Structure to design on (261 residues):
């Protein structure tokens, strides 16, 4: 990517971008944005806590070969899943197809040697549901690996298409604390864009920063139609939707922002 394309055209200052991913998940995106000429700041609006495995969870994993497809919705989910897979399946079942919303999560499973598919246009639930592998699923058993809560769209749509869907939860999302200086930056229209890729992060943003005019006047870059709608309902005035939460989609959306400066 041309590094100049993320610069504000009017004064050539770099875009100041708030990256809100959980601690430990921000490094690659921060590096990509810096390489593209932007000025990213990490203010985590989510914290991830792994859940203890229950006997029911263990039973589901032991029955993994009964599922035709396994969906891992994020890199966090994929890594936690593989940690458990090692315990019960030294040789993973060969007839399972693995599905992810984007290339980043897919790479984790692919490196492990698992057959994986993902959408090439977008990396959210809407894009994933356009995959041929998830279109004709009547009578199939599908395992949906995710964190507690989250969107019901995947499960409900796949069930409407005739699949039996079992959810397996690996973590919960909690609200972290932020420093007063970070709160002030969020309130002051300091950032050219705040990147939001989950409803929890959006809710935590308002909770941690407060319902301040400067916050609602700052541009939000969201990763799904649902987030766009929720942000509008909350009172945010400037919202742009990327095709997904992956780095390439985020950068493409930021290019469009920079081109309008």
């Amino acid at each position: 990517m041309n590094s100049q394309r993320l610069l504000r055209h009017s004064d050539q200052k770099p875009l100041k971008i708030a990256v809100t991913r959980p601690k430990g998940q921000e490094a690659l995106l921060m590096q990509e944005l810096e390489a593209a000429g932007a000025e990213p700041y990490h203010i985590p609006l989510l914290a991830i806590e792994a859940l203890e495995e229950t006997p029911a969870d263990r039973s589901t994993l032991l029955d993994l070969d009964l599922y035709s497809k396994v969906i891992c919705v994020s890199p966090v989910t994929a890594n936690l899943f593989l940690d458990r897979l090692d315990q019960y399946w030294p040789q993973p079942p060969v007839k399972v197809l693995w599905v992810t919303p984007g290339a980043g999560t897919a790479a984790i499973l692919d490196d492990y040697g698992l057959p994986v598919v993902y959408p090439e246009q977008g990396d959210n639930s809407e894009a994933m549901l356009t995959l041929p592998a998830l279109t004709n699923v009547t009578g199939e058993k599908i395992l949906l690996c995710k964190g507690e809560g989250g969107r019901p769209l995947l499960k409900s749509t796949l069930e409407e298409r005739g699949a039996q869907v079992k959810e397996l939860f690996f973590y919960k999302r909690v609200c972290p604390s932020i420093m007063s200086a970070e709160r002030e930056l969020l309130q002051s229209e300091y950032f050219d864009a705040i990147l939001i890729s989950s409803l929890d992060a959006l809710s935590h943003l308002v909770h941690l920063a407060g319902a301040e005019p400067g916050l609602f006047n700052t541009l939000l870059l969201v990763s799904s139609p649902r987030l766009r709608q929720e942000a509008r309902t909350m009172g945010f005035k400037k919202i742009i939707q990327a095709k997904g939460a992956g780095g390439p989609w985020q950068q493409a959306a930021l290019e469009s922002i920079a081109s309008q400066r």
